[in-house]
Amino acid sequence: MASNLVNVVRRQFSTTLRRKADTSYTAATAPDSHGSTRTYKLMTFFVALPGVAFCMFNAYKGEMEHKAHSHRPEFVAYSHLRIRNKPFFWGEGNRSLFHNSETNALPEGYEGDE
Hints:
Layout: H1 2-28, H2 34-69
């Protein structure tokens, strides 16, 4: 009796999975599935892009507030910093690739502070 019940449940479970697999395959190709594409497209344009723009504006505003009250540290010529064993292969060889004359010091000091 118990084995018959187990067989019935097992058969029902396996056919249910097959039916669900078949319906999910056909539901993805159904003609009414284009509504979700439109929904996500609208969410991209009206939620995601304005959210990214707001975050960019907020980060820019915070950086400008920080820049307004921050100052450049005084240059100290430590012997273990800014060692140039061979020149960089771009430019005159003393400035790094992303050199910023306001914040990055050269081995002899900041530019324009002589």
